[in-house]
Amino acid sequence: MLKHLLVVTGAALVLTGCSAGVERVGGEAAPAVAPSPSATIAAPSPTPSASAEPTTAPTTRPPASPAGPCPVTNKTLQKALAAHPDDGVFPDSTFTKIVCFEGYAATTVPERSNSDESYVVWKHASGSWTVLSSGTADICPGVPADVIKHFRSARYGACG
């Protein structure tokens, strides 16, 4: 951009015959007197060259899985439970406090008239969610340590 500005400024000086002095504005050379109305200065259009610097910001690496399973909703997990029933989870359960990370989800099933509050850990594999474990205490065996750490930082209490 600075190189482009200097070229335009140099062209202005040539067109004015260098009769006008050069003033420094913000550290950049600029003509002290505007060119006459008959002399129109058009900035050269940028042309691609091998030495030209890119004009766009560098892109960042896309997420590893832009269409990954997280976040997940109660409705999605209810459908998954209907498709893959689990003896430890009531078929009509509502899943709250959902924490999802790297293909694992931890959920809370609120207290019911016939059961205490419980927890369910899900795993996403082969395009669907399945119950990995459920219960009222430490139910995270088999869950990777970094996922457990994420669940704990989200205040999910069922991972010991």
TrEMBL record:
Skewed-composition ranges (Low complexity): 30-59
Keywords: Signal
Domain of life the protein comes from: Bacteria
UniProt-annotated stretches for the region Disordered: 30-73
Position of the signal peptide: 1-20
Protein's UniProt keywords contain Signal: yes
Keyword Signal set for record: yes
Positions with biased composition (Pro residues): 60-69
Protein name: Lipoprotein
Species annotation: Paractinoplanes bogorensis
Phylogenetic lineage: Bacteria, Bacillati, Actinomycetota, Actinomycetes, Micromonosporales
